[in-house]
Specification:
By secondary structure, the chain is an alpha+beta fold. It has helices spanning 109-119, 130-142, 158-169, 177-183, 188-199, 203-220, 225-231, 237-248, 252-258, 267-270; strands at residues 19-25, 30-36, 41-48, 51-55, 58-62, 66-70, 76-81, 85-91, 103-106, 147-148, 151-153. Helix 4 (177-183) packs across helix 5 (188-199) and helix 7 packs across helix 8.
Length: 273
């Protein structure tokens, strides 16, 4: 279902306060916030479920205990899983030392709670109020958060974008680089060079990153590990868990337990915890 842009019901650019927050809850099986842009930078936090953002030529996933930071002036859209609960933090340009490009930031429990508290405040709080003091501490803490790699570079090149769209729609597609080269009428060597130039990744690494992004979204929405592995075309749950652990340093169950976000692990996952 297509959702109205948050700025249609809450326009963050109407205030010049350093930071304001807004809470969103989705009840539909899948909801989309269409492409939009605003002056303020935006941090998207998932309290429940998951959200996938497209900003520039990259797809970003918002897993538990992370947030996607999108600088002001960057057009972006978002797609949320069923029953997702999100907090948006809007930051005035130059109000904090935050990255100048879109990225995923690790989010501490302190920051999460302060954003939650700020979302309870009016967007026109006074500059010398308690909310203003929360906002100042929040922005100082946020500037110190490390970056995480939960993005998929997709490029604006039409041939790379066509492959990305096809694999995003059907992530279990196991066609080889040679197969895709024939599909887009290129030599395998030329396509390999184009992928590295446009995304910075080889085809194998790029597809693995796509699988990781999809897996995090599905697991965060409550999908069972076995179903996610099958949906990504893995021959076994163990093969999927091996990929996940190599990329993130822990099994899916461990990863979500560390972030206090339970996932549905089956027998194959339990054996690996």
């Amino acid at each position: 279902m297509l959702m109205e842009s948050v700025v249609s019901v809450f326009d963050p650019d109407l205030t010049h306060l350093p930071a304001v927050a807004h809470r969103l809850q989705f009840s539909d099986p899948e909801s989309e916030v269409p492409l939009h842009v605003h002056r303020k930078g935006q941090l998207i936090l998932a309290l429940h479920g998951a959200v996938t953002c497209t900003a520039g030529n990259e797809i970003w996933i918002v897993p538990p205990n992370c947030g996607v930071w999108i600088p002001g002036g960057v057009p972006h859209s978002a797609r949320a899983t069923a029953n997702a609960q999100l907090n948006y933090l809007f930051v005035e340009p130059e109000a904090a030392n935050l990255p100048g490009s879109s990225c995923t930031l690790a989010i501490s429990p302190l920051i999460r709670e302060m954003v939650e508290r700020l979302a309870e405040e009016r967007a026109d709080y006074l500059a010398d109020s308690h909310a203003a003091r929360i906002a100042r501490v929040l922005l100082d803490e946020l500037a110190d958060m490390p970056r995480e790699r939960f993005n998929l570079p997709i490029s604006s090149h039409p041939k790379i974008r066509a492959i990305a769209d096809a694999l995003t729609a059907e992530p279990s597609d196991r066609r080889t680089l040679s197969d895709w080269a024939k599909q887009v009428a290129m030599s395998e060597r030329s396509l390999a060079r184009l992928l590295i130039r446009e995304t910075g990744l080889t085809f194998g690494r790029w597809r693995q990153q796509l699988h990781l992004v999809v897996a995090l979204r599905e697991l965060a929405s409550g999908e069972a590990v076995q179903n996610v592995a099958a949906g990504l075309g893995y021959e076994s749950v163990n093969a999927f868990i091996t990929m996940f652990k190599k990329a993130l340093g822990s099994t899916p169950a461990q990863y979500f337990a560390q972030r206090h976000a339970p996932t549905k692990a089956g027998s194959g996952e339990q054996n690996r915890v």
